[in-house]
Amino acid sequence: MSITVMGAGAFGTAVAVSLASKGPVTVWARSSQQISKIKETRRNEDRLPGVVLPDALTATAEMDDAARSRIILLAVPMQTLRHVLQTYSAALHDKILVACCKGIELETGLGPVAVMQQTVPDAQHALLTGPSFAHDIARGLPTALTLACSDADCGEELQRELTTANLRLYRSTDTVGAELGGALKNVVAIACGTAMGAKMGESARAALMTRGYAEMQRVAVARGAEPETMAGLSGFGDLALTCTSEQSRNYRLGLSLGRGEEFDPAVTVEGVATARAVQALATELRLDMPITTCVTALVDRRLTPQEAMTHLLARPLKEE
Ligand SMILES: NC(=O)C1=CN([C@@H]2O[C@H](COP(=O)(O)OP(=O)(O)OC[C@H]3O[C@@H](n4cnc5c(N)ncnc54)[C@H](OP(=O)(O)O)[C@@H]3O)[C@@H](O)[C@H]2O)C=CC1
Ligand SMILES: O=C(CO)COP(=O)(O)O
C-alpha cells in the first residue's frame, strides 16, 4: 500500500526514507522548487542533509498525487497544521490522517488530533510520536515510537503499516496523553538547555527534567489522559531524549538562551509557542506550572536564566 507524507521537512523525509524500505512512498511539499531539487539530486539537502533518497520514494508538489494514498502522514510544524488541513480538506476527508507534529496550538490550546478532528472530521485520526531524531531514523538506527489512535482497529492497521525494520511502533488509544507528552517535553527541553547553557550543572538538569515531568503529568491528567501514558515513549521517552541531546532544536534554543547567544529564528522550535499555549491552559485549569511559566518568561526575555533559577529555588517548600 502506498503511503503519503505531507511536509518534506527533516522528519517527514526521514520517515519516508524508512517507510520506503517496505513499499512506495510519496513525499509532498508545497514548494515545486524544492520538489524539483529533490528529484534532480535524490537528496533533500536543505532539510535532511547527507541522506540519499531511495528509489521507492517519489516527491511531488501536486495534491492529486499526494491524495492517491489512503494513509497520509502530516509532518508539518504544529502551528501550521490547521492551515494545511483547511487548505486540502477536500482531498483528505476520506483518509487515515496521522499527525507527526509535537505541539499545542497557540490560539486554541488544542493538540494535533483535536485540530484534525475539527478540520477534517470525516477522516480517521492518529498520532505518531515518541523519541526519534530525523537523522537517526533516516540512517536506519533503531527507534521506538508510539502510534496513538482512539479507534483500536485503525491503530492496529497503522501499527502494521508504519512499522519498519528499524522503526518499532507501540500502540496506544490515548491520543490526548500521547500528544501532550510530545508537546510538553519540548518546553522542558528548553528549560534544560538553558540550565546547561548557563552552566548550572547536570544536577540542575535532572531536577528540571523530573519536576518538568511532574508538570507534564499534571496537565495530562487535567485534560483526561491516562496517567500511565506519560511514562511511555511519548512522554518519558521523548523527555529523556530531548533534554539530553544537542540534536534537539528545543534543547539547542535553551542552550543559546543560557549562553546569551542569538538563535536562528528560521529553525522549527515547537516548544516556544507550546510553552505559551500551555501557560494559558494552566491558568485556565488553575494548575501550578512553574517551569513552564519560567520558560515563557525566558523566551520572551522577561527573565534571565539566573533570575528564573532563583525564582524556582525560592518557591515555598512542598512534598514531592
Ligand atoms: N526533526 C525531528 O527530529 C523530529 C520532528 N518531529 C516533529 O515533526 C514536525 C515537523 O518537524 P520537522 O520536519 O523537523 O521540521 P522542518 O522545519 O524540518 O520542516 C517543516 C516542514 O513543514 C513544511 N511547512 C511549514 N509550513 C507549511 C505550510 N503552511 N504548508 C505546507 N508545508 C509547510 C515546511 O515546508 P517549507 O520548507 O516550504 O517551509 C517543511 O517542509 C514538528 O512538529 C516536530 O516536532 C518529530 C520527531 C522528530
Ligand atoms: O522531537 C524530537 C525528538 O523526538 C525532535 O526534537 P526537536 O524538535 O527539539 O529537534
The major β-sheet equals: 8 strands, mixed
What shape does the CA trace take? globular
Bound molecules: NADPH dihydro-nicotinamide-adenine-dinucleotide phosphate, 1,3-dihydroxyacetonephosphate
Succession of helices and strands: EHEHEHEHHEHEHEHEHHHHHHH
Q: How many alpha or pi helices? A: 15
The percentage helix is: 40-55%
Rg, Å, rounded: 19 Å
Average predicted local confidence, pLDDT: 97
Strand content: 5-15%
Number of strands: 8
Whole-Å distance between the termini? Answer: 49 Å
Low-confidence segments, given as residue ranges, are none
Question: Main sheet: which strands, in order across?
Answer: 3-2-1-4-5-6-7-8
* Structural class by sheet pairing and helices: alpha/beta
Binding site for NADPH: 11, 30, 102, 134, 249, 270
Catalytic activity: sn-glycerol 3-phosphate + NAD(+) = dihydroxyacetone phosphate + NADH + H(+); sn-glycerol 3-phosphate + NADP(+) = dihydroxyacetone phosphate + NADPH + H(+)
Function: Catalyzes the reduction of the glycolytic intermediate dihydroxyacetone phosphate (DHAP) to sn-glycerol 3-phosphate (G3P), the key precursor for phospholipid synthesis.
Domain Glycerol-3-phosphate dehydrogenase NAD-dependent N-terminal: 2-153
Describe this structure in words.
The protein is an alpha/beta fold and 320 residues long. The chain contains 15 helices and eight strands. It has helices at residues 10-19, 32-41, 63-66, 78-87, 89-92, 112-119, 134-138, 152-162, 175-197, 202-222, 233-242, 249-259, 270-285, 290-299, 305-313, and strands at 3-6, 25-28, 57-60, 71-74, 96-99, 124-129, 143-148, 167-172. The protein has an eight-stranded mixed sheet with strand order 3-2-1-4-5-6-7-8, with helices on both faces. α4 (78-87) runs parallel beside α6. The chain is globular. Bound molecules: NADPH dihydro-nicotinamide-adenine-dinucleotide phosphate and 1,3-dihydroxyacetonephosphate (13P). 1,3-dihydroxyacetonephosphate is lined by residues 102, 131-133, 186, 189, 238, 241-242, 248-250, 270.
